[in-house]
Specification:
The chain has a three-stranded antiparallel sheet with strand order 1-3-2. The chain is built from seven helices and three strands; from the N terminus they run ααβααββααα. Helix 1 crosses helix 2 and helix 3 packs across helix 4. The protein has about 160 residues and is mainly α.
């Protein structure tokens, strides 16, 4: 007897799992090419999005321990992707600052083909479809962030 066809929700769940898995594997491959551990690559992405921040702010954003954050910063600084700078307004604070020129030279080329192809794919969707996809990703990200916070609160 043939298997029953998957429901639209089951197909969506399957596609979502595949997207998540492919994303992790692709970012791991990019990290290896950049000579970074995969998690360092993703945490560095957060630093790039947020801009200059303190180690404490990074620890709070990532739920990493202060020791793990120090190691992360040391490794990224060693790769010349960021630097520590004293805060001009409060000399007691040390900011972690991405080095945009080095990122552009060493990391950005690893994404150029991906970005081109994704942009090409997005051009095939209507504005309404893009808004629907954006709404899904935005709401799913909120749910995942709440789940992460809840899990970290129970540790």
């Amino acid at each position: 007897m043939p298997a029953s066809p998957l429901s639209p929700l089951d197909r969506f769940r399957s596609a979502s799992r595949r997207y998540s898995d492919c994303s992790i594997l692709m970012h791991e491959a990019i990290a290896r090419k950049a000579d970074l551990p995969g998690t360092d690559h993703k945490y560095f992405g957060l630093i790039m999005q947020q801009g200059a921040m303190t180690a404490g702010e990074l620890a709070k954003a990532t739920s990493l321990t202060t020791g793990a954050v120090t190691g992360l910063i040391d490794r990224l600084e060693g790769k010349k992707l960021l630097e520590r700078r004293n805060d001009d307004t409060d000399r007691r604070k040390v900011l972690i600052v991405p080095l945009a020129a080095n990122v552009k030279r060493h990391i950005q080329p690893l994404f150029s083909e991906l970005q081109r192809r994704i942009q090409e794919r997005l051009a095939s969707f209507s504005e309404k479809e893009i808004k629907t996809i954006e709404r899904y990703f935005s709401s799913a990200a909120l749910i995942m962030d709440e789940t992460r916070q809840n899990l970290n609160a129970t540790m």
